[in-house]
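hiii, so i know i said id send this last week but things got crazy w the move. better late than never?? heres the sequnce for the chain we talked about at the cafe, plus the structure i predicted for it. fair warning i was half asleep when i ran it
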Amino acid sequence: MTQLMTDPTMQVFAVCAALLVLKMWLTGTATGVTRIVRKAYITEEDYALVGKAEPNTDPLVERLRRIHQNDLENILPFLAAGFLYALTGPSQDLAWWLFTVFTAARIAHTGTYLLSLQPWRTIAFEVGNIALLVIVILLLLAVI
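okay and structure toks below
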């Protein structure tokens, strides 16, 4: 493992992966904390615990939840495909660009989603989506 982490491509991937996992953790934690603060829980037993009978949906909780769900749908595939792509011995410069563009786009997507900024949210999503698609195509080409 130590030898693997001396590869510059794997180092860039590891930094991007760590940042993205931290971002997902922060988003998930923010969702939970906001649920508690705004008393907008997810299950009936949570409402019963605080003595409320009716569910309360909260726009910020729902926005955070959707951000987190979107991260799960996009970052998890990147973690798998990016790792495998890094193992193929790709061009370091191209891998650096793809990994950092994907990471920056996911961070921008979260910020623009939180601030309700369209069309910037869609642009950030698509930039990350294209970077992931290129990674997957290059991975396939490397192993076929």
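btw The CA atoms of residues 62 and 71 lie 14 Å apart. thought thatd interest u
miss u guys!!
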